[in-house]
């Protein structure tokens, strides 16, 4: 049996970034239905902080990561859509991308167009899938609408803001600092609320002539959840897709009624990439908007895989902007 040596990051117990350990590994030939991928770049996402800290329980030991790009080195029996040498990327799991080489199911993989490099692909897949389902599937934004997006200078925010602007949507973004406000404006936010200096609800109502917005995209969670509800117009949609500030407390249903028959949803990437055809459609739309220049993937941080502890420390400390990649 052919064995490929490699490196893998695992944590054996939950905790601070230093629980992440770089270990040696050996990868056998892929089984039926699997593809062996040699990573050239790996995407870093906040969900990996949730796993590492235990906010989202996950079986241990765990190699985190759901996003990567690289070259196909081998394919298992029955795999016909890929061959050795293909450039591929994925952003919908399974968990385990913090490594130099891995075997994984063929289903999540998509071929990378020639116009997209490995780092861009690794940085955009999970965040791009998220942006696509938020803007085009969960609530299909329309030209002329005003929307509210929290953490507008982050990885998902930087993609959503550019994409929404290209669709003729006015984006109100929230950020934590003045430096991030400048970045959010550069990405296309029409208005930016600095949460440490301004009241979110008052400012949104002011910017919408008291009406509120039809949709709020909230990946921050506990710290912004109630304000998000209060920013919506009657029959608006609250899209809670992350918990960067902590888990949202249970929500009394009457809150939705009292604020005007609001709709509340908690979507995940997995639910929007289960169907292969739908996933390929989403990926194609993502690649098209990036290749056209309408959305620029901003890789503002690069870390060697061996420096994963530092990468997590910066990410969890909110000291990153745009996208971050690990380089094997």
Describe it for me?
- The chain is an alpha/beta fold and 328 residues long.
- It folds into 2 domains: 3-125 and 298-327, Quinone Oxidoreductase, Chain A, domain 1; 143-266, Rossmann fold (3-Layer(aba) Sandwich).
- 30% of the residues lie in helices and 27% in strands.
- The strands form 3 sheets. Strands 3, 4, 5, 6, 7, 14 and 15 form a 7-stranded mixed β-sheet that branches. The chain has a 6-stranded parallel β-sheet with strand order 10-9-8-11-12-13, sandwiched between helices. The protein has a two-stranded antiparallel ribbon with strand order 1-2.
- α2 packs across α3 (155-166) and α2 (118-138) packs across α9.
Short précis:
Keywords: NADP, Oxidoreductase. The protein has 328 residues and is of the alpha/beta class.
Give the helix/strand layout.
Elements lengths: L2 E8 L10 E8 L5 E11 L2 H7 L14 E8 L11 E4 L10 E5 L4 E2 L6 H21 L7 E4 L5 H12 L3 E6 L2 H9 L4 E4 L5 H8 L5 E6 L6 H6 L1 E9 L12 H6 L4 E3 L3 H5 L2 H16 L7 E6 L3 H9 L6 E5 L1
Parallel strand pairs: 8-9, 8-11, 9-10, 11-12, 12-13, 14-15
Antiparallel strand pairs: 1-2, 3-4, 3-6, 3-15, 4-5, 5-7
Q: Name the assembly state.
A: single chain
What's the gyration radius in Å? Answer: 20 Å
How many domains would you count in the coordinates?
A: 2
Q: Look at the structure and name the CATH superfamily of the largest domain.
A: Medium-chain alcohol dehydrogenases, catalytic domain
- Please tally the β strands and state the result: 15
CATH class of the largest domain: Alpha Beta
Distance separating the two termini: 25 Å
Number of helices: 10
Specify the CATH architecture of the largest domain.
Answer: Alpha-Beta Complex
Mean pLDDT: 95
User: CATH topology of the largest domain, which one?
Assistant: Quinone Oxidoreductase, Chain A, domain 1
Relative helix content: 25-40%
| Biggest sheet architecture | 7 strands, mixed
The helix/strand series, from N terminus to C terminus, equals EEEHEEEEHEHEHEHEHEHEHHEHE
Bin the strand percentage.
25-35%
Structural class: alpha/beta
Q: What is the overall silhouette?
A: globular
């Amino acid at each position: 049996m052919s064995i490929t040596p490699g490196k893998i990051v695992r944590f054996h117990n939950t905790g601070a970034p230093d629980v992440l350990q770089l270990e040696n590994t050996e990868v056998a030939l892929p089984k039926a239905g699997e593809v062996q991928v040699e990573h050239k770049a790996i995407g870093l996402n906040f969900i990996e902080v949730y796993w590492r800290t235990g906010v989202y329980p996950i079986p241990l030991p765990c190699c985190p990561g759901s996003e990567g790009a690289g070259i196909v080195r081998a394919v298992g029996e029955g795999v016909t859509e890929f061959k050795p040498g293909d450039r591929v990327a994925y952003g919908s799991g399974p968990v385990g991308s913090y490594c130099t080489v891995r075997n994984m199911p063929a289903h999540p993989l998509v071929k990378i167009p020639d116009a997209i490099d490995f780092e861009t692909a690794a940085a955009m897949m999970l965040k791009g899938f998220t942006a696509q389902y938020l803007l085009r599937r969960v609530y299909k934004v329309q030209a002329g609408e005003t929307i509210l997006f929290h953490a507008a200078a982050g990885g998902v925010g930087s993609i959503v803001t550019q994409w929404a602007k290209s669709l003729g949507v006015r984006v109100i973004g929230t950020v934590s600092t003045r430096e991030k406000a400048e970045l959010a404006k550069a990405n296309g936010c029409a208005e930016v609320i600095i949460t440490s200096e301004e009241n979110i609800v008052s400012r949104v109502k002011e910017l919408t002539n008291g009406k509120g917005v039809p949709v709020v995209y909230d990946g921050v969670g506990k710290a912004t959840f109630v304000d998000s509800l209060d920013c919506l117009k009657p029959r608006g949609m609250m899209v809670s897709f992350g918990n960067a500030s902590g888990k949202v407390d249970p929500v009394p249903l009457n809150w939705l009624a009292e604020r005007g028959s609001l709709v509340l949803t908690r979507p995940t990437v997995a639910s929007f990439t289960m169907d292969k055809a739908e996933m390929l459609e989403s990926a194609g739309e993502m690649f098209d908007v990036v290749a056209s220049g309408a959305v620029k993937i901003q890789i503002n941080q690069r870390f060697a895989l061996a420096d994963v502890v530092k990468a997590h420390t910066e990410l969890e400390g909110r000291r990153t902007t745009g996208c971050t990649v690990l380089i094997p």
